[in-house]
Hints:
By secondary structure, this protein is mostly helical. It contains four helices and no strands.
Amino acid sequence: MQVNHGKALSLKLGALLIVFIAVLTLGFEVPWYHAAWISIAVGLITYGVGDMFVLRKFGNMIATLADFGLVFFLTWFFLWILDFDIGTETSFVLLALYTALVTAVVEFIFHGWLLKHKREEAHVHSTR
């Protein structure tokens, strides 16, 4: 996929940072710095797996479902690792589920933008 990875990654990481801070920090009082580094780690992994591989091969819906699964598992895993530092009574599975649901909506929109941007770029290159 010919795409400006810097622009796409910046957009994705910015959107995920907002989602993770909103859900984890504002919703469940997870410290903002934990939400921030988890969003960056999850964003980089899902960009490589979901956006560059699954989206290219299978399309938006399957890539969104794959991203949902990855975000859920990775968020749960990172929160589980941080168990000693997070004093929340809420289950890490629920935190990961809420985060993954909101992220799936953002990912669906991001995938649409990425596919549209790819088509427009291909059209520009073919008319040269």
